[in-house]
Specification:
The complex is a heterodimer of chains A (224) and B (247). Chain A is built from nine helices and no strands. Chain A is mainly alpha-helical and 224 residues long. Chain A has one domain: MetI-like fold (Orthogonal Bundle). The radius of gyration of chain A is 21 Å and the shape is globular. Chain B is α/β, with parallel strands linked by helices and 247 residues long. Chain B has nine helices and ten strands. In chain B, the strands form two sheets. A six-stranded mixed sheet of chain B has the order 6-7-8-3-9-10, sandwiched between helices. In chain B, α5 packs parallel to α6. The longest helix of chain B is centred in the C-terminal third of the chain and has 16 residues. Classes of the chains: A mainly alpha (224), B alpha/beta (247). The interface between A and B is medium-sized, with 21 and 32 residues.
């Protein structure tokens, strides 16, 4: 444990996990927003929108996240010059958020779409019968029920997102996996201690998160 | 009841693949008239009912409501539907909303009415169908008969020009059928224009102005209930009535 009594090392550890939390938070918002829009597109009556949604899911769900993050750095930033912040570290962070969001959105979309299938057709028919437009039917009746049905799988997707956030380390952000590599490099005799502390931190945060989503799923479930 | 037609179907045809579910149907429903549609399963009566607010699009023919042909899609169609209430066999109350919210949602979101006024109207409608004391519950906490009465209140909250009932009592336990029919009968007496697809012959007898008998997608026979039940003209109707009225 003496590795972490050193204030520099402790700072590396804490900073690393703070980056993970920030990546997870922003990635969650991005993935939920984009994923919900994609799901709406995939059930819409407009063929172009359906095609766009399907293409997005097929491209991003089947591409390794590491490649997407690399592309965000080398493609968007280095080649196309997309700069999201003047601060190099923050720029890498935001590039990582973009990569995590577009990738995770594909999974969120498919979860929500399966949730839409759990909503009986009669619910949308009743909404249309009182004069709701397609958009009102979707946002007031179908999506709220679909969302409640997929709280538990969304929880799994967000837990995966949190762990996937370590991949942003490959483009230089000093998040937890980079921090761990850094500490192991300078404390070669403490590999196991360092590894278990980092892995344990993820477990301590994520295990209750999983149970939290399970509890929430029960609480929000729509009774039929 | 005036003679002015509110709903007019002319030469309406509808196919489900090779199946001809509506075969050249002509029907006119006057303002304030109560038309009960009966017939064997698969005769196309539910499809007929659902075609009137375009939940089922038709393949050919015309349907006019209140003098205007049904719009094909979009906002115009949504506006038309807001003027035609519909009550389904399986109630279809919004499962994630309370009883009161179910009744208030349409007027607030579709008609953009003020929630204070809608609340008052919704409570008086729930009171009318006898469920005001359940207003804060969710649909799954109510019996089938109660849910169907809420569904009627939800349709009435839009102050529709006509109400369509698609087998409203077919999914109910026998002892709950009466409470729903009571509400429908009182609506009929007040002059609401109604198209009712049902197997409840008692309701057809005492509440309908006209009975329409359908078989194999065709509108076979129509007559006032007393006449229809006493003297059916077509063999198809005689056969149908002999099967259901002998028990």
């Amino acid at each position: 444990m003496d590795v972490f009594s050193d204030s520099y090392n402790l700072d590396v550890y804490v900073t690393g996990f703070l980056w993970i939390l920030k990546l997870t938070a922003a990635g969650t918002v991005g993935a939920l927003v984009i994923g919900t829009l994609l799901a709406a597109m995939r059930v819409s009556p407009v063929p172009v929108l359906r095609g766009f949604g399907t293409a997005w899911v097929n491209i991003f769900r089947n591409t390794p996240l590491t490649l997407i993050i690399f592309f965000c750095y080398f493609g968007l930033y280095s080649t196309l010059g997309v700069t999201l912040s003047d601060n190099l570290e923050l720029n890498n962070y935001w590039l990582g958020v973009v990569g995590l969001s577009v990738y995770t959105a594909a999974f969120v979309c498919e979860a929500i779409r399966s949730g839409i299938n759990t909503v009986p057709a009669g619910q949308a028919e009743a909404a249309r019968a009182i004069g709701m437009t397609f958009r009102q039917t979707l946002t007031l009746i179908v999506l709220p029920q679909a969302g409640r049905a997929v709280v538990a799988p969304l929880g799994s997707i967000l837990i995966a997102l949190c762990k996937n956030a370590t991949i942003v380390g490959t483009i230089g952000l000093m998040e937890s996996s980079n921090a761990m590599k850094d500490l192991i490099n300078s404390n070669g005799d403490k590999v196991f201690t360092i590894f278990f502390i980092f892995a344990g931190t993820f477990a301590i945060v994520l295990i209750p998160t999983g149970y939290g989503f399970g509890w929430l799923a029960n609480r929000l479930a729509v009774k039929r | 009841m005036s003679d002015e037609a509110l709903i007019v179907l002319e030469n309406v045809n509808k196919y489900f693949g090779p199946l001809h579910v509506l075969d050249d149907v002509n029907l006119s429903v006057a303002r304030g008239e109560v038309v009960v549609v009966i017939g064997p399963s698969g005769s196309g009566k539910s499809t007929l009912c659902r075609a009137i607010n375009r939940l089922e699009p038709i393949n050919s023919g015309t349907i006019t409501f209140d003098g205007k042909p049904l719009p094909a899609e979009g906002r115009a169609l949504a506006r038309l539907r807001s003027e035609v209430g519909m009550v389904f066999q399986s109630f279809n109350l919004f499962a994630h909303k309370t009883i009161l919210q179910n009744v208030m949602l349409g007027p607030i979101k579709v008609r953009k009415e003020k929630s204070v006024e809608v609340h008052e109207r919704a409570m008086s409608l729930l009171d009318r169908v006898g469920i005001a004391n359940q207003a804060e519950k969710y649909p799954a906490q109510l019996s089938g008969g109660q849910q169907q009465r809420v569904a009627i209140a939800r349709a009435l909250a839009m102050q529709p020009k006509a109400l369509l009932f698609d087998e409203p009592t077919s999914a109910l336990d026998p002892e709950m059928v009466g409470e729903v029919l009571d509400v429908m009968t009182s609506l009929a007496r007040e002059g609401m224009t109604m198209v009712v697809v049902t197997h409840e012959m008692g309701f057809a007898r005492h509440a309908a102005n006209r009975v329409v008998f359908m078989a194999d997608g065709q509108l076979v026979e129509q007559a006032p209930p007393a006449e229809f039940f006493a003297n059916p003209k077509s063999d198809r109707a005689k056969d149908f009535l002999s099967k259901i009225l002998t028990h």
